[in-house]
Amino acid sequence: MIAETGLAALWLAAALALLQAFAGLGSWKSASPALASLTRPVAVAQGLLCLIAFGCLLWMFAVTDLSVLLVASNSHVDKPMIFKIAGAWGNHEGSMLLWVTILTLAGAAIALFERRLDAQTLGATLFAQSLLALGFFAFLLFSSNPFERLSPAPPSGAGLNPLLQDIGLALHPPTLYIGYVGLSVAFSFAVAALLTGKVGPAFARAMRPWVLLAWISLTLGITAGSYWAYYELGWGGWWFWDPVENASLMPWLAATALLHSVAVLANRDALRAWTIMLALVAFAMSMAGTFLVRSGILTSVHAFAVDPERGAFILTLLLLYVGSALTLFALRIGSVKEGKQFSILSREGGIVVNNIFLSVILAIVLMGTMAPLVAESMGDKISVGPPYFNKATVPIGLLLMLALMVGPLLRWRSDDKARLKRLFAPAIAAVVAVIFLALTSPQAGFWPIVALMLSAGLGVASFLPLFGRNLLRTPLPIWGMVIAHFGLAVSVAGMAAESGWTTEKLYALRPGETVSVASWSVKLEDVAPVVGDNWVAIEGRLSAKRGGFVAQLKPQTRQFSNPEQQTSEAALLTRWDGQLYAVVAPISETDLSRWQVRLWWKPFVTLIWFGGGLIALGGLIALLGRIKLPARKQNENPWVPA
Amino acid sequence: MKPKHQRLVLAVVALLALIGAGLLAASALREEASYFYTPATLAKAEVEPGKAIRLGGMVQNGSIKRDADGVTVRFIVQDRDATQQVVYRGITPDLFVEGSGVVADGRLDKNGLFVADGLLAKHDENYVPRELKDIDMTTAEHSQDTLAK
């Protein structure tokens, strides 16, 4: 019954999406209050119905209802409860239902909370949002029905890939999806603005909190995903430039650019067409990402639950939506008047530089990600990996950091060069950092040293916007900006330290032997079998010693039973100045006298994710300021420096 | 500057930046993209030693040998027509077994030995690296014995 309830809820929601499309269209065209008052409840009801459908899915997975095809092929009775529930979205159909649920909830949230838009633009926004929903409802109902029954029901179920049986699965996909799909709101806003022609500060102020919310989730999702891959895959890497990772990075780059350009539009009424374009591109990248991840068209280490035929469906939707949005842009942008002027040496100028660098990085990542597809259509098989992406993006990313030290210091509209004198302090920090590094460890290489130098500079420069302000009266969005920019400096410092100063050692050890990695000495005490809920493992017991400090590490090689699969569970020892990362594996099935032990010392690697968290926190603080602001009705324009 | 001019200048700068990115990306791609070979296509192609490439095929039965150091593994990758010697130092992926598919990232050394710095094997029982999908069919005839689970 539960499965049928879920399916019925989905169909009803799809019907409501159709109704919303007409009502939204009507309230945009005729500005009729009756239609406008119909659109809002319909959008909310639609979101609730999807939530019910998603609840049904969770219930089916929680009780392991094996008469449902999806549960039978992706779950197993002997699985811990948290993974039974999180497993609901660890497969294609479930993850698409989550996608659609978030999409309709975003529509419901617009209907409930958006009070700044005029009725016509709101109608057009909900019209656009319902068209998006309709396409993805069709996709779910016609090609990815999560509620399909299986008769007869199998006795136990096929199980969930052990790599996914991790707390990361409970957190990473939902946050990432809120980010991906949250950008649909920006897309619908942009479409509505093109339809009504009302592009201006009021529109930008209405759109900004939505973009912020999606961007915070994307940032958190990417950060969490990176840490998850780092400890779960056991390769010691935190970013592989894998297509699936790029698929999440590209919307983030576009959303970051959008977040900044929307501030220009809100405060200064400039960059109108460009902001609209970015809003369209950001969600296009989300859909492209979904397509890349769901279709399995590119080889990926994170490709779970892929299906090429359904990829064609998503590709069609993607081309349809992006194609019609771009056509609309081309047709209507002429009627959007040009915004206000600014000099290049101004806050706007800084944001334009930021936008150009971010777009360039986006273009490079997009080219590298799609190159294998293009090459294949011409008969070559190529793979594009870290050497390409690092070479092409790192220099531009560092230039972006340089620009980031300057931009926030400048006034809107125009500023004089005297203000750049404030950069004295960050310049000192950068010079000190580079001299120290060049003297102590020149072997780290050019790029890590340059990156640390810029991190030091940005770390100081990010606080300069607070200089000369009354800290108690500084608006929250300024605090948010400062914290997010500082977070970037922290994260890049972690990346540079990890890539320049990591020590890696590989040994074959007998129990009792001691080896060293960086300043640690590590002893293999013992190797013993251990048993878990649905796995057995061999566990290496290592004791790591540095100075007077001793700690235990227990990396495992696990053998899961449903499905049959081996995974290696790395052991991590976190210290204030880095992480010791250990993996243990048998040499072969016959040689049990020695064990392969792989050790990494990664100085300050945790800063990567700590910085990512700070970036998201900065976004959250800015969002709080944006939401509270209309209630307090104080300074109209908090970003204008006093 | 007149309003129209500023808009034009911005558009031109953005366009130039994107063209620059495109050129940069294209040149980096030419240098850094690694081409995919099977043992047979690798034997025919003249790949210079040291260039990053990918090699895909089946791990030949009985070919996995471990050096005395316990961390270096040598094996032979085969397709229907040719074989290639591979050496790899490190922990092999969980599903790296004889008769199964593997994709190796690495380069040829001067003696024609493929030095792998990364191995990608199937990482769950349903997943096959995309490059190997065609190959599995052709080599199946050769390694019938290993297909039985």
TrEMBL record, chain B:
Keywords: Cell membrane, Cytochrome c-type biogenesis, Heme, Iron, Membrane, Metal-binding, Signal-anchor, Transmembrane, Transmembrane helix
Any Gene Ontology CC annotation: plasma membrane
GO annotation, biological process: cytochrome complex assembly; protein-heme linkage
GO MF annotation, one: heme binding
Positions on the Extracellular side per record topology: 29-149
Pfam families xrefs: CcmE
Entry superkingdom: Bacteria
InterPro entries: CcmE, CcmE-like_sf, NA-bd_OB-fold
Keyword Iron among record annotations: yes
Subcellular location: Cell membrane; Membrane
Membrane topology qualifier: Single-pass type II membrane protein
Signal peptide range in chain numbering: none
Segments in the Cytoplasmic topological domain: 1-7
Residue positions binding heme: 123, 127
Record family assignment: Belongs to the CcmE/CycJ family.
Purpose of the protein: Heme chaperone required for the biogenesis of c-type cytochromes. Transiently binds heme delivered by CcmC and transfers the heme to apo-cytochromes in a process facilitated by CcmF and CcmH.
Name used for this protein in its record: Cytochrome c-type biogenesis protein CcmE
Protein source organism: Sphingorhabdus pulchriflava
Classification of source organism: Bacteria, Pseudomonadati, Pseudomonadota, Alphaproteobacteria, Sphingomonadales
